[in-house]
């Protein structure tokens, strides 16, 4: 299983998701969580305590078939990772979109000042929200969520059925990401869609986009999965169909237990 700077790339062709109960909070954990959350909001008023999905465990059901156990929680639960010995803390689960330009470069975005991570470069995407009512949280739902994040952050309206499951990442701090690949588009078209969005939005989640073949081309902080994902895309060339087929460098390995802490999403929904 490839690992770069603590980031794992999991070769997943199929996902199964099942809801489970959240670990109970002790009175001391709840008190510490609320205190840390209030401190975090004072430091960054853009934080938003909305509903979100956390990842309880990962396990291989079969080769390339990954089972994800998830729980309903809110963003404030992420601060439990700062409470030593907390048994109630779980990492986040997010989706992201690998959007190549037709010249083989990968589109990335820089988080704007109104988000929880100003200046950080990452793929379009965000934390997964729990389904409403009795709606399912399955691979199709994640694909739809990824399509919504893509249009909200870049202006690119891509039908969910045009997104293909590509990789699952587990970050250096344990955040779990489901990455979908999108059909390649001309860089000029992608820039035009983003410019239209930026002109229409008062507070866009990305303040700029870039097209790169190497993460070293970017200045500023990077989300932990970005460097190995950009390198992975570059290793298989500019042919998008080949990107989807080329998985031979990844291998299944036992995955189990609760991963480490996850990234939170931008403050805006």
From TrEMBL:
PROSITE patterns per record: NUDIX
Superkingdom as given in the UniProt entry: Bacteria
Gene3D superfamilies: Nucleoside Triphosphate Pyrophosphohydrolase
Pfam family, one: NUDIX
InterPro entries: NUDIX_hydrolase-like_dom_sf, NUDIX_hydrolase_dom
Signal peptide: none
Residues annotated as domain Nudix hydrolase: 88-235
Stretches the record annotates as Disordered: 247-269
SUPFAM superfamilies: Nudix
Protein name from the UniProt record: NUDIX domain-containing protein
Organism from which the protein derives: Nonomuraea longispora
């Amino acid at each position: 299983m490839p690992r770069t700077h603590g980031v794992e790339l999991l070769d997943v062709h199929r996902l199964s998701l099942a809801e489970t109960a959240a670990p109970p909070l002790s009175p001391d954990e709840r008190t510490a969580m609320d205190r840390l959350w209030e401190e975090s909001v004072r430091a960054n008023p853009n934080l938003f305590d909305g509903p979100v999905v956390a990842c309880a465990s990962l396990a291989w059901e079969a080769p390339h078939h990954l089972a994800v156990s998830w729980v309903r929680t809110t963003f404030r639960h992420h601060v439990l990772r700062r409470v030593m010995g907390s048994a109630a803390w779980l990492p986040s689960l997010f989706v992201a979109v690998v959007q190549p330009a037709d010249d083989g470069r990968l589109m990335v975005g820089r988080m704007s000042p109104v988000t929880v991570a100003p200046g950080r470069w990452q793929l379009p995407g965000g934390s997964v929200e729990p389904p409403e009512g009795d709606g399912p949280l399955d691979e199709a739902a994640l694909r739809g969520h990824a399509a919504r994040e893509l249009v909200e952050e870049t202006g690119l309206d891509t039908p969910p059925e045009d997104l293909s499951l590509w990789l699952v990442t587990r970050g250096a701090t344990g955040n779990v990401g489901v990455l979908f690949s999108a059909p390649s588009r001309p860089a000029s078209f992608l820039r035009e869609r983003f410019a239209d969005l930026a002109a229409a939005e008062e507070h866009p989640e990305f303040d700029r986009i870039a097209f790169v073949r190497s993460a070293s081309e970017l200045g500023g902080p990077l989300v932990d999965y970005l460097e190995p994902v950009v390198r992975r895309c570059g290793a298989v060339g500019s042919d998008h169909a080949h990107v989807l087929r080329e998985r031979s460098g990844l291998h299944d390995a036992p995955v189990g237990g609760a991963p480490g802490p996850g990234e939170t999403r931008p403050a805006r929904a």
